[in-house]
Amino acid sequence: MAVYVEERLCKGCALCVHFCPKDVLNLSEKRNEKGYNIVEVGYPEKCTYCELCEMNCPDFALFVIDERAERKTAKRAKGAK
């Protein structure tokens, strides 16, 4: 998965949902400890790693990791030894 949601920081504003061009995220029925409905990753396979959700989150409640790039970097580092 490429998008990670920090549930305790999410206030359910849904800005990330609004800005996601691929409809990867949605507002869930699940509530965090503050009582906010939190965002969930509904379709991780659709993620294009554009980071628009991360850039538009006012509470830094989610982040994107391009696991494909990490694997390539790790593979290069391993080959360099």
Explain the overall architecture.
With 81 residues, the chain is an alpha+beta fold. It has one domain (3-80): Alpha-Beta Plaits, CATH 3.30.70.20. Helix content is 30%, strand content 22%. It contains three helices and four strands. The chain has helices at 15-19, 52-56, 67-80; strands at 3-5, 25-31, 37-41, 62-64. The strands form two sheets. The chain has a two-stranded antiparallel sheet. A two-stranded antiparallel ribbon has the order 2-3. A hairpin with a 5-residue loop joins strand 2 and strand 3. The longest helix is centred in the C-terminal third of the chain and has 14 residues, at 67-80. The chain starts with a strand and ends with a helix. The mean pLDDT is 88.
Beta-strand fraction estimate: 15-25%
Instruction: Compute the average pLDDT.
Output: 88
Task: Tell me how many strands there are.
Answer: 4
Just name the CATH architecture.
Answer: 2-Layer Sandwich
Calculate Rg over CA atoms: 15 Å
Count structural domains: 1
- List the secondary-structure elements in sequence, H or E: EHEEHEH
CATH overall fold name: Alpha-Beta Plaits
Q: Which strand order do you get reading across the main beta sheet?
A: 1-4
Sequence-ordered SSE layout with sheet pairings:
Blueprint: E1 3-5, H1 15-19, E2 25-31, E3 37-41, H2 52-56, E4 62-64, H3 67-80
Antiparallel strand pairs: 1-4, 2-3
Protein traits:
81 residues; alpha+beta; Alpha-Beta Plaits; two-stranded antiparallel ribbon; 22% strand
Short description:
By secondary structure, this protein is of the alpha+beta class.
